[in-house]
Specification:
The protein is α/β, with parallel strands linked by helices. Helix content is 36%, strand content 10%.
């Protein structure tokens, strides 16, 4: 891959499926780093930012959004063919997103309730992460992603090393920031023990329990944590709602939701 100082910069594309565009906006919000990024990478396809179109192949493709409509199935396979490195960004692309809640419900009934003419709407019965359909080379978690993790990944690709992105519980971020554990101090429900870090403990910083936006950390014992929440006196419906957020369709959160009674049908 080309490095700084050479005329050929790595070709980068950003693509979108079912999502809110928040992760793409995080790229544009990098501000101080953005000029450095565009000096080292040739961003040739980015509909959120420019009407300029450019066909593949690409060195890196960032994909936002879940696979939620029939046309997405062919499109993601074509992007995979065109990408040397395919990176999913955000909770929708990595875990199905909040729209994956349809996977436990009656898809046709939901569509009929929302749209006056549901027969005009072509959508899949499930909303699934990109990795369910094609090989993914790297993931950036979050809703939205963290700009620091994005620049770390780009730096790693440029110099040819593995990205240094931590895989640890949000609790570790709370400790580093000196935040008193609200689970211990106040009994507040929090997903921090089973959620991977990356948000800099944003919600606990403002006295709110973690919502699990970055998804389950590696080897997260979600079943044990759900049992603890139940033993604290919370009803099953409240507990599954804690797990059934932006990343609810990711394992092992998905299993907890199903076990607590939020099953399809």
């Amino acid at each position: 891959m080309a490095t700084a100082g050479r005329t050929a910069r790595p070709r980068v594309a950003v693509a979108k499926f079912a999502s809110c565009d928040g992760c793409q906006l995080t790229i544009l919000d990098l501000e101080n780093e953005l000029l450095e990024i565009v000096s080292r990478f040739d961003i040739v396809e980015f509909p959120e930012a420019t009407s300029r179109r450019s066909p593949g192949p690409y060195d890196i493709v960032f994909v936002e959004g879940s696979i939620s409509a029939p046309e997405h199935l062919d499109a993601i396979k074509e992007l995979r063919k065109q990408a040397r490195i395919l990176v999913t960004i955000g909770a929708c692309a990595t875990a199905g997103g909040i729209q994956a809640m349809r996977n436990w419900a009656d898809h046709d009934a939901y569509r009929a309730a929302v749209y006056e003419h549901p027969e005009w709407i072509e959508s899949l019965a499930t909303a699934t992460p990109v990795s369910d359909h094609v090989k993914v080379d790297a993931e950036l978690r979050g809703c939205p992603i963290d700009g620091g993790q994005l620049t770390e990944l780009l730096t790693a690709v440029l110099v040819g090393r593995r990205p240094q992105i931590r895989d640890e519980a949000v609790c570790r971020e709370c400790k580093r920031k000196g935040i008193v554990c609200m689970v211990v101090a106040t009994g507040e429900a929090c997903m921090g023990p089973v959620t991977t870090s990356g948000c800099n403990a944003l919600c606990p910083t403002y006295d709110r329990g973690c919502f699990g936006c970055f998804g389950p950390r590696a080897n997260a014992n979600a079943r044990s944590w759900s049992s603890g929440l139940l033993k604290s006196g919370r009803p099953p419906e409240e507990v599954w709602r804690l797990f059934a957020g932006f990343t609810g369709y990711a394992e092992p959160f998905r299993t907890v939701i199903t076990e607590l009674g939020k099953t399809k049908g």
